[in-house]
Amino acid sequence: MADLGLPSAEAGYALKHLKSWMKPQRVSTPLSSQPATSKRYPDPLGVVCIIAPWNYPVQLVLQVLTGALAAGNTAALKPSEVSSATSAALADAIPDYFDSDAVAVVEGGVPETTTLLEQRFDHIFYTGNGTVGRIVMAAAAKNLTPVTLELGGKSPVIVDRDVDLDVAARRIVWGKFMNAGQTCIAPDYVLAHRSVEGELIDAMRSTIEDFYGSDPADSADYARIIDERHFDRLTGLIEKEDDANVVVGGDSDRSTRYIAPTIVRDVDADSALMAAEIFGPVLPILTVDDTHEAIEFVNERDKPLALYIFSKDNDRVEQVLRQTSSGGVCVNATVMHVSSANLPFGGVGESGMGAYHGKASFDTFTHYKSVMNRPTMIDPSMMYPPYTKTKQKIVRKLLK
Ligand code: NAD
Fold this sequence. Notes:
- This protein is an alpha/beta fold.
- The chain folds into two domains: 5-151 and 349-372, Aldehyde Dehydrogenase, Chain A, domain 1, CATH 3.40.605.10; 156-344, Aldehyde Dehydrogenase, Chain A, domain 2 (3-Layer(aba) Sandwich).
- It is 36% helix and 20% strand.
- It has twelve helices and 18 strands.
- The strands form four sheets. A seven-stranded mixed β-sheet has the order 10-13-14-9-8-15-16, sandwiched between helices.
- The protein is globular, with a radius of gyration of 25 Å.
- 41% of the residues are buried.
- Nicotinamide-adenine-dinucleotide binds next to α4 and α5.
């Protein structure tokens, strides 16, 4: 659904709409430039470089490639070396479907990507963490190459007191524990209204059992952690918390890189769990007394890639929408906004710059060339010197 379904849907959408996207767009011409026609011609940027991470190792290469190709570019693809099997599979499969001078796969880690970034590209599209995002942007600056940075961050979930708790629990658990929390827009932490915190935890506990059974280690629907480095990082975060606060899960097995769906309550805002994006199956719950406090908490931190609000109260939802900034939002849902071709997907501030999906992907990889075309049959002298008093009067009127 996530790794293959989304890029496949994106390709179908692009095929369906490409003809109309490619057409020059007619726009109006101001009176002062008449007679003339004005159009915006979509031009490909040229050669684009697509650098992807490991967590959705097919989607984050091919969905981006769809936009680049639709807009008429050629592309160099750099899948993540961390998901090495998928990287090798893409390197093997791509030449079967594309000419090598249209799409090329470059495999490798830091040295290879560093060399790749020394080349001159017309656009660099990077998905991954903000530290490397800065390296990519610095390399791009040397050639004045524009960048799209799809980064991550701590995406909060605000749970209001006025809420359908069962639905909220299902949708939070689904978004959080899909791919064992290794999703850029996974709910990172919950800000629950104090009056519903206990019931929410109970509902999430039983949802986890409904989804993954009494032992999630046996579930075919529950993923593993990508590597030992991330396994150690995540289990280290759990160990730092008071055992009594680990109210769901907490157990793990390094030999299979399994970490149970884990919920931690009474988490301190200064704890290690709250210091950086978790990117794993650990969900901290913090409590707030009202919407204002939740908004302040979010605004004191970096702008997140996604924000989720669960509430039946439209005024409070609107308050959150108007008073916070994030890449995207779901109201009474998590993650789903990523699947709409009509909602450009991207971050803001620390969570990234630029957006893609659907038409936004085409636009990201397009330069809209502004073209004014003036017929020569009539050539009003208004714009030409000498600028007599009468001409000045007319021009001033026309420019109003
Ligand atoms: P990663 O380690 O696979 O790195 C991503 C890419 O950067 C890889 O291709 C890697 O080779 C390259 N890279 C690593 N170090 C480099 C360096 N020093 N110089 C040049 N290139 C280098 O993946 P990651 O960064 O761990 O990915 C996880 C992060 O990505 C999380 O923060 C997550 O939120 C974010 N993410 C964002 C999105 C989104 O769409 N916004 C999607 C998925 C993941």
